[in-house]
Amino acid sequence: MNYKKDKLFSDPDMTLSDFVFDEQVADVFPDMIVRSVPGYRTIISQIGMLSGRFAQPGTHVYDMGCSLGAVTLAMRRGIKHKDCKIVAIDNSEAMVKRCQSHCQRDTGMVPVEIICRDIREIEINNASFAVLNFTLQFLEPSERYKVINNIFNGLVPGGALILSEKISFSDNNRQKLFDNLYYDFKRYNGYSELEISRKREALDNVLKREPKDGHIKRLKSAGFTIVEEWFRCFNFVSFLAVKE
Ligand code: GEK
To answer: CB within 8 A of 65, min separation 6: which ones?
Structure first.
């Protein structure tokens, strides 16, 4: 499948509306996410490696908000047990369609079930590993508890969750500094000032960031006893939460 360069926000005459994961976004997604999420490639490859440690025989592994299946494919390489099943979920039809075709062309042995649904409606069961790689941030903060509790309850002992999020800061100076560092990252990757500001506006009502402490508190209150930041680049953080 050929993916194009992300130029979605380069047209100054385009009417700006809230960001949605439609066909246009799915068509440029691999380029968009690598140029917009610092450390994305490292996060994906390391999730593959982590799945090798946490996936237990005969259990399910979840990729929640799978987009085009980058996490799913990395886990398919990382998981050592052929009797595991990966369940990949996304509520964007455009993403799911492309994810299906990527998984069909992949030669990995671990079975994959791809489901087009809202992650809030999924029952998690017999899970040893679950991944929310930049997905929870698209839910209203009030709805995040339910999703995290659901994952915790569906994990077997020794199971783990990876939660990656773009975070905010409670202190204005830090917020400003890290926003600027992030815009430098986007400029470095070839985005223009217009593209940066229009994408920011489009995401404003859609991507709701929280401070790091809010995520840690929620994970602990769900019951995770080990909660550690295992990756960080600017305002992009990934947590490893373990159910002991
Ligand atoms: C990756 N994890 O490449 N239910 C299901 N899917 C959802 C929901 C929801 N309620 N809300 C958003 N999504 C991927 C990247 S992208 C992150 C994840 C980004 C889906 C949405 O359709 C999109 O595919 C994905 O979550 C978020 O590692 O674009 O910043």
So the answer is: 89, 90, 119, 132, 133, 134, 135, 136, 138
Give the pLDDT confidence of 14-48 residue by residue, as tens digits. Answer: 888 999 999 999 999 999 999 999 999 999 999 99
- Which ranges constitute the DSSP H helices of the chain? 23-36, 40-54, 70-78, 93-105, 141-154, 172-188, 193-203, 212-222
Residue for token digits 């002991």?
Answer: 244
221 alpha carbon – ligand 1 mean position (Å): 24
To test the ligand 1 pocket, which listed residue (29, 61, 67) has its Cβ within 8 A of the most ligand atoms? 67
Surface-to-core class of residue 53, CB atoms within 10 Å of its CB (0-12 exposed, 13-18 middle, 19+ buried):
exposed
Residue having the nearest C-alpha atom to atom 19 of ligand 1: 134
**pLDDT tens-digit series, residues 173-221:** 999 999 999 999 999 999 999 999 999 999 999 999 999 999 999 999 9
Q: How far apart are the first and last CA of the chain?
A: 41
* Contact between residue 91 and residue 114 where contact means Cβ atoms under 8 Å apart: no
Q: Is the pLDDT of residue 159 over 80?
A: yes
Q: What is the pTM of this model?
A: 0.98
- Contact between 136 and 147 (Cβ < 8 Å): yes
Q: Does the pLDDT at position 108 exceed 90? A: yes
Cα 132 to ligand 1 centre (Å):
8
Which amino acid is present at 100?
Answer: Q
Quick one: tokens of 177? 């500094």
Q: What is the DSSP letter of 224?
A: -
